[in-house]
Amino acid sequence: AEAAAAAGGGGCSAAGGGSVPVLFCFSVFARPSSVPHGAGYELLIQKFLSLYGDQIDMHRKFVVQLFAEEWSQYVDLPKGFVVSERCKVRLVPLQVQMTTLGNLTPSSTVFFCCDMQERFRPAIKYFGDIISVGQRLLQGARLLGIPVIVTEQYPKGLGSTVQEIDLTGAKLVLPKTKFSMVLPEVEAALAEIPGVRSVVLFGVETHVCIQQTALELIGRGLEVHIVADATSSRSMMDRMFALERLARTGIIVTTSEAILLQLVADKEHPKFKEIQNLIKASAPESGLLSKV
């Protein structure tokens, strides 16, 4: 998905604090809400997604517009705009239709491993299987030179990443309390990797940390691939509806084998045999994919 705010002149002051009332308009809908004082383009996009996620076709380009009293009509959101006072904004789909092909190349891909921690072991359905698949993905990432970012949710209380998962070579292993993996340190790490276009995301829980991470990433213009056989929840119903919702927003729900073979792309790839051996050696028959 890609959303673009057209460049314009000026912007509002970011001084102050608290929240500011904003009317969010999309198509025939208009919903009052609020954003923090000083919120910019990315937060506006996230709010649009939270309000209208089921109606927005993420395969299209959009422009965000601001209602300008002096013109009595909407104008393209100025570059550097921040919310400093009560205002009205709208999301306008452009005519250009994009197709999300979901192509993956090692040079433009990052793996996100989310909260695969010891205390989740007894509670998460098929946890042993997603550990096995997660380890296979991380081995594949090392073979192909793909950066790996790992988070641990409140490790003081929930423990570290399970011992079965080898984090050797991970670019970042970060504790968090926020459900989404999109922390300032993660954004800084992404900025250090040139040409990143796609994130391969897996871990727990599908309907909480995975879902919130995926939505934040597509709000930043990244393509997200969720590995269905490497993500789970305590409840299969929560997992199923989360994957359905995410697929409707343009996120690609796929499998570990599809990911790894797409990344090598050719039998003649120098790492093909090693990737093939990974797939043959560690494919669990859990029935998890029958519950997507």
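(the above was protein one; protein two follows)
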Amino acid sequence: LFLLFFSTHEELQTLDVDDAFFSTPEDVAARALQPRGGLKFIRSFQKQAEDQAVNLPPNLHQLVHNATYPQSPPHMVWRYFYDLQGSAEDPFPGGLFQWARFSLNTSNLSPTEKIFSDSLHQHEDTLTLATLRIFSNGLGQPHFHFNANEMGYVISGCGQVGVVLAGTTSSFNIGIGDVFFFPVGTQHYIKSVCDEDLLLLLAYSTGDQLQTLRFNSYFRSTSDHILAQLFHKAQVDLQENFPRAT
């Protein structure tokens, strides 16, 4: 069972091997592929009535006698493969992330992680992936991303999502199998509302380092005299309740 993300907002366009084969004129296919049986062998292929995107014919054991997949060398494998489940955990109050992404700072990356990171950054329209575990009744605080749309899939648990827009907030419940979407620059939060952890798989539409600004960062970084004017709150109350980090 796979969960797939594709980096396009257009209708996904796919060309399968069998579609390409049957769309090619017989004589052209015969001259290009040069089978021993020539044109006669090419004409022996029959187009199946159903889509062959996933092909499990009932007589598979008769058709395939030896299926082997030789392992490619590590420097090739890790350009296209990443062990997300086995990657380092990135904790925060209330949960933890695991990331498959490009990182500007490679000092803490293993050699294989660096290969994958560099590979992501070499291609346009790649994706950053993450698993997010929010502990029971924990909160992924409001934040937004400067450089990526975000899409998520619920693996287990249940939660509530809030999308904070100018003058309004949209909130909805999420459960196993649900998908949610946050456009770039949209502030949002996610919280667990079950006795079990909320586990999500997230995809971000960037191959660059993900840029995120969290609610507590920009609120507490705003000068207290500005906050006093905005919220009609005594400056001294804000200083006492939101002390500056030293």
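Reviewer note on protein two: The chain has three domains: 10-68, 73-210, 212-245.
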